[in-house]
């Protein structure tokens, strides 16, 4: 039986379960509205390491180990790791996860990597290539600022359209063992470029990609906004969320009553000086683990479309005057 749906999507005949997850965050995230929900809040932004990059690697290591501990599985039970981050050559993932000695697939989808890793891990488990697989991603405010913008010592003023990169890592163990949530389908996203060149306004750059993937999901599965309890984007922030809603209204769908954005939820914008909201690979990952999945487990939300969003720029492309394309990967998660 074919599991492909429409142009881009997959509906799993044997939907994999999200067996367990974990969320490790920094101090600022711990001070936000979701602070009490995270598995661990690290008060030291360096995590007792010498560099910001090593600190981010430690976030990933801790997240995977925490997920393993919570699941009562062992490293030997996990066949593959699917991981990525924002740093050049994904060094946060490679240096952070090497000690587990689990076969690793390195992924890059910018801030959509949480969605990309869940998609690939779900396909792998659903196809029978692994009984258990791990999807993990991370970001760190200081390592991201160092790579994409200015050294922290520069203390530049950020425009109001800018997002604050989340310091955090989320890990998810997918498998065949029954749990309270499962991934029933996915809609991988396409690259969408509206010609935005302002790297401080990534919400505007990513919103068209989110719109494209949501619309494709509706078409492929013959659904509408009425079929989901929530449609949750990754890190569009306040500005990108408004653009997304407007773009979908032009296509005949109004998601304003069911839309939620992880970048908006994770910080208190009025008191934490995060401007447009949160961003980074860790933003949607830790919010999914700490806030969204518990609501699915309890049955408060029966079916959601989880949609991490990414801005596909690099320092090279930006300095050469290229635009900022976006991408978004859709993951359908249902209560069992």
UniProtKB/TrEMBL annotation:
Please name the InterPro entries in this protein's record. SpoVAD, SpoVAD_sf, Thiolase-like
Q: Name one GO molecular function term.
A: acyltransferase activity
- Which Pfam family, any one, appears in the UniProt record? SpoVAD
Q: Which domain of life is it from?
A: Bacteria
Q: Which NCBIfam families match?
A: PRK08304.1 (NF006160), spore_V_AD (TIGR02845)
Its protein name is: Stage V sporulation protein AD
Which source organism? Anaerosacchariphilus polymeriproducens
Q: What is the lineage of its organism?
A: Bacteria, Bacillati, Bacillota, Clostridia, Lachnospirales
Gene name, Swiss-Prot/TrEMBL: spoVAD
């Amino acid at each position: 039986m074919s599991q492909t749906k429409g142009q881009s999507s997959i509906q799993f005949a044997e939907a994999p379960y999200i067996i367990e997850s974990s969320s490790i965050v920094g101090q600022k995230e711990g001070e936000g509205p979701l602070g009490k929900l995270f598995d661990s809040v690290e008060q030291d932004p360096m995590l007792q390491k010498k560099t910001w990059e090593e600190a981010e690697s430690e976030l990933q290591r801790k997240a995977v180990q925490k997920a393993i501990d919570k699941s009562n599985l062992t490293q030997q039970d996990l066949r593959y790791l699917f991981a990525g981050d924002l740093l050049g050559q994904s060094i946060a993932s490679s240096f952070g996860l090497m000690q587990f000695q689990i076969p690793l697939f390195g992924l890059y989808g910018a801030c959509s990597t949480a969605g990309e890793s869940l998609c690939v891990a779900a396909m792998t488990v659903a196809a029978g290539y692994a009984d258990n697989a791990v999807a993990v991603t991370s970001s760190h405010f200081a390592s991201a600022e160092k790579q994409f913008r200015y050294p922290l010592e520069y203390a530049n003023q950020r425009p109001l359209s800018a997002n604050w990169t989340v310091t955090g890592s989320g890990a998810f163990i997918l498998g065949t063992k029954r749990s309270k949530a499962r991934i029933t389908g996915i809609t991988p996203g396409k690259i969408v470029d509206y010609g935005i060149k302002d790297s401080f306004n990534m919400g505007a750059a990513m919103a068209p990609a989110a719109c494209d993937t949501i619309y494709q999901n509706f078409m492929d599965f013959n659904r509408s906004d009425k079929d989901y309890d929530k449609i949750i984007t990754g890190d569009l922030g306040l500005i990108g969320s408004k653009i997304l809603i407007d773009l979908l209204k032009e296509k005949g769908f109004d998601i304003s009553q069911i839309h939620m954005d992880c970048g908006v939820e994770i910080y208190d914008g009025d008191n934490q000086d995060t401007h447009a909201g949160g961003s980074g690979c860790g933003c949607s990952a830790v919010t999914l683990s700490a806030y969204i999945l518990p609501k699915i487990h309890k049955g408060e939300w029966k079916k959601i479309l989880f949609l991490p969003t990414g801005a596909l720029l690099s320092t090279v492309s930006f300095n050469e005057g290229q635009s900022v394309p976006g991408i978004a990967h859709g993951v359908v998660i249902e209560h069992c």
